[in-house]
Design brief:
Elements: H1 3-16, H2 19-26, H3 30-44, E1 49-51, E2 56-58, H4 60-85, E3 92-98, H5 103-116, E4 120-126, E5 140-143, E6 153-166, H6 168-173, E7 188-191, E8 199-203, E9 209-213, E10 219-220, H7 223-231, E11 236-240, H8 241-249, E12 254-255, E13 261-262, E14 264-271, H9 279-292
Parallel strand pairs: 3-4, 3-5, 7-10, 7-11
Antiparallel strand pairs: 1-2, 5-14, 6-11, 6-12, 6-14, 8-9, 8-13
Helix pairs in contact: 1-2, 1-3, 1-4, 2-3, 5-9
Length: 300
């Protein structure tokens, strides 16, 4: 008998709790259902189900076999759907969530995607908080800090680090820090969602970590606010490299304590753990990965 059909029938018997119920669900005779299960048992040389007049239950071996075969069948279904999706024109609404600091890097990708796939409508939500992907109905989120939800799938786009910076005018009014400890006496603006709180954390050339507790006149969830204060000589900032790379290159900001570097993070594409990723989401992620590869200069 066909092995895959027998696996499917066996799984339906387990899920329905009996041969008769499985037969009704499969539109198959009880005799045929029984034959499929017996064929599997004979092939394996083990009993998969305990049968009584009232109910059917899995044996220990049957439970192991059901768990593995269910995953195999799910993988086959996923392969079928994925192959079909390759030839399906993406359409509908693609809901995206992003932080404000990286919208300017997303916009060229979104523009290109809309030109490539005009049947897809992009819906972009901008927020510093990590949205609930399922509850809020988002297909994809682009995040810059680590996630607390391990159920989400993460696709790395590009690494980045924090850079300790201030404006030249700030150094005209304050002594240049020579050690990490000197930062404790300076006005240090802080990002609300910085993973280490008010302890700025760094790595030296050997990867050894050290930190210093800082304080200052501003705590905010807006990275652009921190950049503004740094540019205007108001404070020292531990800034994302992608936010201030141009400012550093053009001299509007200067790096401090270059022997220390911020801990490595990544800009990630994040999406729910679904058995079937819609074509429009997969194509947008692929385009993100390709375009954000150009931004890895942020690490240097």
């Amino acid at each position: 008998m066909d092995r895959l059909t027998s696996l499917s029938v066996f799984g339906k018997v387990v899920e329905c709790g009996g041969f008769t119920a499985a037969a009704r669900r499969l539109n198959m005779s009880v005799t045929m259902v029984t034959t499929h299960v017996q064929s599997l048992e004979e092939r394996l040389g083990v009993r998969l189900l305990n049968r009584t007049t009232r109910k059917v239950s899995l044996t220990e071996t049957g439970k192991f076999y059901y768990d593995r075969s269910a995953q195999i069948l799910a993988d086959l279904d996923e392969a079928d759907r994925a192959a079909s999706a390759l030839t399906t024109t993406p359409r509908g609404v693609l809901r995206l969530a992003s932080t404000a600091a990286i919208v300017r890097f997303l916009l060229p990708v979104m523009d290109e995607f809309m030109q490539l796939y005009p049947s897809v409508t992009l819906d972009l939500g901008v927020s510093e908080r990590m949205v609930d992907m399922v509850e809020d109905g988002y297909d994809l989120a682009i995040r810059t800090v680590p996630l607390s939800d391990n159920s989400l799938i993460v696709r790395k786009l590009t690494p980045w680090r924090h850079i300790l910076v201030c404006s030249p005018s700030y150094l005209e009014q304050h002594k240049t820090p020579a050690t990490l400890a000197d930062l404790a006496a300076l006005d240090c603006t802080r990002y609300t969602y910085y993973p280490y709180g008010d302890e700025w954390t760094f790595e030296n050339e050997t990867g050894e970590r050290s930190g210093v507790k800082v304080s200052g006149s501003m705590v905010t969830n807006s990275a652009e606010t921190l950049r503004y204060l740094a540019l205007n000589g108001r404070a020292v900032s531990l800034a994302p490299s992608f936010l201030v790379s141009d400012d550093l290159a053009e001299g509007r900001l200067v790096p401090l304590l270059p022997e220390y570097r911020g801990v490595e993070f990544a800009i990630n594409a994040v999406y729910p753990n679904k058995s079937h990723l819609p074509t429009k989401v997969r194509l947008f992620i692929d385009l993100l990965v390709d375009r954000f590869a150009e931004h890895r200069k942020w690490m240097t």
